[in-house]
Fold this sequence. Notes:
By secondary structure, this protein is mainly α. It has one domain. 80% of the residues lie in helices and 0% in strands. The chain has eight helices and no strands. It has helices spanning 3-40, 46-74, 78-81, 88-109, 112-116, 123-140, 148-176, 179-205. α6 (123-140) runs antiparallel to α7 (148-176) and α7 (148-176) runs antiparallel to α8 (179-205). The longest helix is centred in the first third of the chain and has 38 residues, at 3-40. The two termini are 29 Å apart.
Amino acid sequence: MSTRAMRSAATFAIAASRxxxxxxxxxxxxxxxxxxxxxxxxxxxxxxxxAANVLFTALVAITLAYANGDAARTDPFAAVEEAAPLxxxxxxxxxxxxxxxxxxxxxxxxxxxxxxxxSTFPWEAFVVxxxxxxxxxxxxxxxxxxxxxxxxxxxxFALAAALLCASFGxxxxxxxxxxxxxxxxxxxxxxxxxxxxxxxxxxxxxxxDPLPRTT
Length: 215
């Protein structure tokens, strides 16, 4: 088996392990997101609804990240994860696969009620919300690895990053009068912050050097 195939298999195994450990929580979070989305529709104006959706989804991301970290420590499969042929950043991506899918699902669930009572899908609000959640998640993944005080700070950073992502996207959309510009701006912020946060998370996971020492 090639190195690339081995790494792909290890990534899939870690993601599947997280799914087995967290699927019940994932269902609860998605159901709760649907209920929260219905309640948030009572908020006016639309900008406050978007902010409320973003804050709720960011809190979901933090909750899921903490549970993900707990699963990484207690899952029987975790005993062999460090032996996987993955660098820290690759383990970080593997750990983020299932939580990322869940937070996107939660972001979508928040619009079940609006869709059922309207003829159009608010796709731009959904994408901004999903991008904000995916901005918060990589930062939140580091929460279980930190001390209690630093963990709280990381959670605050995750919430702030989600609001920054959504606010910047909405500001660009309002200035250009373009929903597409808002979506692209939010995605751009999510990519920039997400890549840096995931890299830092990977460095925290890198408890061993997978390369042989030469000295």
